[in-house]
Amino acid sequence: MTTQSQEPSAPKESTPTESEPLHVEVIRPQRSYWLQIVFFGLALSVGLYPYLKKKFPKLEKVIQPSRYYQRLGHQSFKIHYFQQAIDQYKKALLYKGLMVGLSNSERSATEYQIARCYTQLRRYGRAIHYAQRAQITSPQWLPPYVLVVDLYTQLNQSEKFADYAKLLKERFPNRWNVWVMLGNGHRRLGQEKAAIDAYERSIQTLNASMTSLTQDSPEYRKLLKVYNDLQTQLNTWKATREKLTQASSTSQRQPPIAAPIPQPKMRTPTSQPYRKAPTTQKVNPKLAPFPIFRMSRSRVPIPRIRTHSRSQKLLTPP
């Protein structure tokens, strides 16, 4: 007998009837409650942090120590405790990180403040060092460059200023305020020709930057005012230099005339006030035309002050 293999029959699909309802399985996404809790906590902390920082000052030292020490440094700088401010600023620079440390702009501002403190303490080498560190941190920020130029000109270090001027010309060739700063430095060092060249270059760069702006913009008006001021100051300085050179070339140097010796003023003799001659007779209080007030021995009478005019009454302190 041959056995025939029976294939398994497919299950019959049951059609829903009117009495049996249709069941549909709905797949719902799983909610991430943990993320919602985290975001809610962050929003709450950001909103409450300024209030908690004022209420608990030491909380900022735990969460943001760099800004805490930076704020202490600002307070010490305002009351002219420069060495204490330097210590606080250096502590603020020690912390690095996204939440704990300072940003690049804040680090450069802190280093610039350290340079200003060293300038007040007359430690100019350290001041230049930290100003150059601030330049490395944010190279497009001008106040550290201005501080270094001022220190080189005040210390009369013309060679270092010349090297530094070359660096500034290479780094900022199209910034008019940099050329004005260099012109001021050359003028302080007595280099008048270089100062005039720098001022003229600043006017040229300022004029070039004004052409790209519209005349109705407020920035154009501001630059136009600066342009007119620079032009008038430069013209007046050139005119005074020419007058001084002409006067020095034409006039002959004469020995200085000795000034007359001032004579001391002589006091005019004034008539002495009338004083009665001292008498040895005792005054009888009953026969005196005015009352006599006796003073105790402990009290010393205050002398009267005579004024410059005899017609006025004598002044006595109250």
Written description of the protein model:
This protein is mainly α. Among the domains are: 35-141, Tetratricopeptide repeat domain (Serine Threonine Protein Phosphatase 5, Tetratricopeptide repeat, Alpha Horseshoe); 159-243, Methane Monooxygenase Hydroxylase, Chain G, domain 1, CATH 1.20.58. Helices cover 56% and strands 0% of the residues. The chain contains 11 helices and no strands. α8 runs antiparallel to α9 (176-188). The radius of gyration is 44 Å and the shape is elongated. The N and C termini lie far apart (153 Å).
Annotate the secondary structure layout.
Blueprint: H1 33-55, H2 58-63, H3 65-78, H4 82-94, H5 104-120, H6 124-137, H7 143-154, H8 158-171, H9 176-188, H10 192-211, H11 218-250
Helix pairs in contact: 3-4, 4-5, 5-6, 5-7, 6-7, 7-8, 7-9, 8-9, 9-10, 10-11
Percent of residues in helices comes to 55-70%
CATH superfamily of the domain at 35-141: Tetratricopeptide repeat domain
Q: At CATH's second level, what is the architecture of the domain at 35-141?
A: Alpha Horseshoe
Kindly report the average pLDDT value: 74
Order of helices and strands: HHHHHHHHHHH
CATH topology of the domain at 35-141: Serine Threonine Protein Phosphatase 5, Tetratricopeptide repeat
Rounded to the nearest angstrom, the radius of gyration is 44 Å
Q: Which residues form runs of ≥5 with pLDDT under 50?
A: 288-318
Biggest sheet features: none
Give the N-to-C terminal Cα separation.
153 Å
What would CATH call the class of the domain at 35-141?
Answer: Mainly Alpha
